[in-house]
Amino acid sequence: MNEKQRSILLDSSSRFPPPPGVKLSYGTAGFRADATILQSTVFRVGILAALRSLKTQSVIGLMITASHNKVSDNGVKIADPSGGMLTQAWEPFADALANVPDSLHLVQLVDDFVMKENIPLEVVQSAVILLGRDTRPSGESLLEAAKQGISSIVGAVAVDMGVLTTPQLHWMVRFRNKGMKATEMDYFNQLSNSFRCLIDLIPPGSSVNVMDKLIVDGANGVGGEKLQVLKKVLHGLDIQIRNSGKEGVLNDEVGADYVQKEKVVPRGFAPADAGMRCASLDGDADRLVYFSAIQNSNNRIRLVDGDKILSLFALFIKEQLSILNDNEGDRETNSYPATLGVVQTAYANGASTDYLKHLGLEVVFTPTGVKYLHEKAAEYDIGIYFEANGHGTILLSEGLLQWLDGRSSEPSLTSKGSEQQKAALRLLAVSKLINPAVGDALSGLLLVEAILQHMGWSIHRWNELYHDLPSRQLKVKVVERSAVVTANAETVVVRPLGIQEAINAETAKYPRGRCFVRPSGTEDVVRVYAEASTEEAADNLANSVAQLVDQFLGFRSS
Ligand SMILES: CC(=O)N[C@H]1[C@@H](OP(=O)(O)O)O[C@H](CO)[C@@H](O)[C@@H]1O
Ligand SMILES: [Mg+2]
Prior knowledge:
- Belongs to the phosphohexose mutase family.
- Pathway: Nucleotide-sugar biosynthesis; UDP-N-acetyl-alpha-D-glucosamine biosynthesis; N-acetyl-alpha-D-glucosamine 1-phosphate from alpha-D-glucosamine 6-phosphate (route I): step 2/2.
- It catalyses: N-acetyl-alpha-D-glucosamine 1-phosphate = N-acetyl-D-glucosamine 6-phosphate.
- By secondary structure, this protein is of the alpha/beta class.
- The protein folds into four domains: 3-181, Alpha-D-Glucose-1,6-Bisphosphate, subunit A, domain 3 (Alpha-D-Glucose-1,6-Bisphosphate, Chain A, domain 3, 3-Layer(aba) Sandwich); 187-193 and 307-464, Alpha-D-Glucose-1,6-Bisphosphate, Chain A, domain 3; 213-304, Alpha-D-Glucose-1,6-Bisphosphate, Chain A, domain 3; 471-553, Alpha-D-phosphohexomutase, C-terminal domain (TATA-Binding Protein), CATH 3.30.310.50.
- It has 18 helices and 19 strands.
- The chain has helices spanning 3-13, 39-56, 91-99, 103-116, 139-151, 166-177, 184-200, 222-233, 256-262, 306-324, 350-358, 370-377, 398-409, 415-433, 441-455, 459-463, 499-507, 535-553; strands at residues 31-34, 60-64, 73-79, 127-133, 156-163, 214-217, 239-242, 277-281, 288-293, 301-304, 340-344, 362-365, 382-386, 392-396, 471-476, 485-487, 492-495, 514-519, 526-531.
- Residues 67-68, 282, 284, 286-287 line the site of magnesium ion.
């Protein structure tokens, strides 16, 4: 940096001192904390976004959200040029920048990083950062801090895109970098057009018209608002939106995280909704789960989680691929040896993994966090990934898309040919409907709805694909959660020594028992997951392992 650049940065960063005694980490999904302590962090992430844009010579996204966390929290994360998560290679710099104690050290840190990464600051360059935020009340002032951070790097320009879902911002970044128009209206039009295309390709005879209405819990967040807009350009779907944010509190006993973890009906639903097809979005609309309330059951639900969405998508895609590859007696037709893989984490219900393997699919596991799942899924021609909590998407390779394009426009003289053409068109429509940058509750919801109509299935038929093993998740507060070190996609604890043996001994007591612990990347807790053949057994296993965690790492009085 030259003297002028240094002094601008020094001056602006001295106006954003970090809160004393707070150490933040980029974590599973960016920085998150109580909103009152985040001004300096968001300012500094603004600097990072500007540097990233200069380095990559591309548009970068900066999203202010704390997703499913409580309304008083907030957070910030970066979307890379592809629309995906910030490259993991820059996470250590993000941590160092967020925690550097004063502006003198900050300027030094930035200067060193600029040199190390060879970031072109000296030539007049322009960097463009798209800013988005969810509906949290703290969002506006944090957005201002981000703008200040961005403008403290000479040549960087912030473009405020307003209130958005997280996936909308990722989508905009991706398509801006492909030189395409990527306004919010383009997003809605693409979703509704590709949904319509899938509906138009439904084979005659499927029970398209018997689908009753879908009720959506908007978590009192941005998702409900945006779905309202999407509804206006959509045809062929009867949607009723609850918890749209006009009255209730964001994520307060509503939303996908609450529904999935507590397995109860969110607020805003009435006994008359029992049995209906319902969906729930999280606070920034990147997660989606379905459910139906059980009549007279104390608010209990039948949960149709991310694993089942994954299974539905996998079935549909597999069906289209087998239509396309059915070349028996027809040597003229070219086929494409498309690889299809599904990616899960240790939180996936064991019954879902068994089911997917039974379908003959390749199932692989990664640690928790979309950045890991996405990377793995990108290794296949079609990679489908989902976390059990409902965050996931489908990635299709460029090679396959080109081949599908060719197949869909070939003249078809036989009925098999025309079926194959339709299968190609369906997969192309899926690729346009689904968000290729990141999991997206709105596009995911439209794909689920299109596939249910294609199959002629109710939510109950879908839920019957397999039966979830009973499971329980608990959180344990410990002195230092980073003392828990895991291996093998987080299924084994290697530190503290001895705890894994104790967990194994406990798990062995339960038929179909499976249990693991890991430190959360978004909350100051250690998470415990347990699964077993009955609910009581899953609860007991989770409780006894939570006690083990407490014994090994908890707050014990001496
Ligand atoms: C068990 C669970 O749901 N974990 C969530 C949660 O991460 P933790 O690191 O477990 O706090 O938030 C992440 C970001 O949204 C999400 O990717 C992940 O799946
Ligand atoms: Mg979210």
